[in-house]
Each structure stands twice: as structure tokens, then as C-alpha cells.
Design a protein that fits this description.
mainly alpha, single chain, 9 helices, elongated, about 70% helix
């Protein structure tokens, strides 16, 4: 996913290859281990950012339902809950995002331009030493926007879809949603999460991976708006959705597994303690 997003930046004017082409080239050129490059950073990111955004959204949503006299909250309020929880979680987890993007993009660079990080901790320590602590928060702006859109697409849309799918399947949800309701609504949430967040995820990846020009010392992008405009100018409007196949292939199963797990764990907790 990251390689597809950065391909247009590193190879201007060239058509971005598909997911299968990228994957086969990775295995051919760098071995099967390259597919798991940055997995330690990805795990760290999920432990910090993933748990925070889900836990905060559920906490905010439950509190808002309580303030609404126990009645279901509308989609606008669910959206605000998703945006708030997503933005807070991103501020906690961005350093791991920096490490993940850099570890995955390093092998795409020319040998002389590689940073050659050993692992996630080496990436975090060296980034701080070489570029200052603030470098761990490069791309924070688009990352916050990405986190907000991801939470709205995944969690707020899931809550809304669950009500709609339950009506379609005549599911009263008295003891929680049925399995068919959970699967249907989580499938919807997987698609909306990918669709809403990909442009911001793309901009985030390019801002995090950019390096100063060796001759001018200037960075390729000045900020979020400049990055978005340059992508559209050089790659067209659909350039903002580069790597959608890989991104959706990552987001949809991830969202469905997380959402189905949450429902099961929550129901088991309520049965045990309430």
C-alpha cells in the first residue's frame, strides 16, 4: 500500500503499477521478508493508535447516548464522536506511523539514499537524533484528517449501518446484534473506511517519506494543500486514490475482524458483569 502511494512521487510521469505487480516485484527483488518490512512498527501503531481510537469512540458514544436519555444518537453526533476520538488517537500514535512509512519506503530509494533502519526502535531513535523530536510528528495534519475520516468511515458508519441492517434483517438487537447484522454492517464499514480515508492516507505517506532536495535543501511539499495540488497536477484527480485496491484489501478485512471482535468481546463482558 505504501509503495503504491509513493511510486508516483519517486517515479513522476510513470503509471502506478497494480497491487499484484508491486507484490511480485517485492518478492522477486528483495525476498519474501520484504512483504513484512515494518511489521514491528505496524504492531506498535495498532497497540497504541488502534486501541485508543476504538476505545475512545465507544466511550464517547456511550456517554452521548446516556446524555440523550438512552435513545440512539443520530449520524451527525456519531460522526463528531468518530472525528474526536480519531484525532486524539492519531496524536498518540503518529511516531509509529513515521517509523512504519520510512521502513517500508526505504527499499524503494536508491542505495545511497536509504536510511537503513534496523527496526522500529532504531527508526524512532535515529529520527529523533538526526532530525529532532518534531520529526516524529511530520505529516501530523493529514494524519489527523486521515484518523478522523477513518473513524467516521469505520466506526460511525458501522454504528449507523448496524441500525439499518438490523431493520433489514428484522433483528431486534435486544441482546446485541445478530451475526448476520454484524457481518453486513462491518462489510459496509470496511468499504467506507477505505473510501473516506485514502486521500488523506496518501498525503500523509508522502509527507512522512519526503526528503530534502540535495541541491536546494528544499522539501518536495510545503504542506497538506501543496501536496494535494501537486498530486492532482502530476497524476490527475484519481492520483489521490492511488493504491485503492491494496488499501481496500487492507482496510476491509481489518475493519471486519476488529468490529466483529468488538461485538463478541463486549457482549461477553456484559454477560459476565451485568
Amino acid at each position: 500500500k505504501v509503495r503504491m502511494q509513493l511510486y508516483g512521487q519517486l517515479n513522476p510521469g510513470k503509471k502506478i503499477p497494480g497491487f499484484s505487480t508491486i507484490l511480485s516485484n517485492m518478492v522477486k527483488n528483495d525476498g519474501i521478508a520484504s512483504v513484512y518490512k515494518g511489521v514491528d512498527a505496524a504492531i506498535g501503531r495498532q497497540l497504541v493508535y488502534g486501541t485508543a481510537r476504538i476505545g475512545l469512540h465507544r466511550t464517547f458514544s456511550d456517554k452521548l447516548v446516556q446524555m440523550n436519555d438512552g435513545k440512539p444518537i443520530n449520524f451527525a453526533v456519531k460522526t463528531l464522536s468518530g472525528m474526536a476520538s480519531g484525532s486524539i488517537a492519531v496524536c498518540i500514535g503518529t511516531p509509529f506511523d513515521i517509523a512504519l512509512v520510512r521502513l517500508q519506503s526505504d527499499s524503494m530509494a536508491a542505495p545511497q539514499d536509504r536510511r537503513n533502519y534496523k527496526n522500529v526502535f532504531d527508526a524512532l531513535v535515529r529520527t529523533t537524533k538526526e532530525e529532532g523530536f518534531s520529526a516524529l510528528y511530520k505529516g501530523l495534519g493529514p494524519n489527523v484528517l486521515r484518523g478522523m475520516s477513518m473513524n467516521v468511515g469505520m466506526l460511525a458508519c458501522y454504528d449507523q449501518a448496524k441500525e439499518m441492517v438490523a431493520k433489514l434483517f428484522n433483528d431486534p438487537m435486544e441482546n446485541g446484534p445478530s451475526l448476520s447484522t454484524q457481518i453486513g454492517s462491518s462489510a459496509v464499514a470496511g468499504f467506507t473506511a477505505a473510501l473516506f480515508s485514502l486521500p488523506f492516507d496518501l498525503i500523509k505517506s508522502r509527507l512522512m517519506a519526503q526528503k530534502p532536495n540535495p541541491e536546494t535543501g528544499l522539501l518536495p511539499y510545503k504542506g497538506i494543500v501543496d501536496c494535494a495540488m501537486k498530486i492532482v497536477q502530476s497524476e490527475g484527480p484519481m492520483g489521490l486514490f492511488a493504491g485503492f485496491s491494496a488499501y481496500y484489501g487492507r482496510c476491509a478485512p481489518h475493519a471486519m475482524i476488529i468490529l466483529l471482535s468488538i461485538e463478541s468481546i463486549t457482549q461477553a463482558y456484559r454477560n459476565a458483569f451485568y
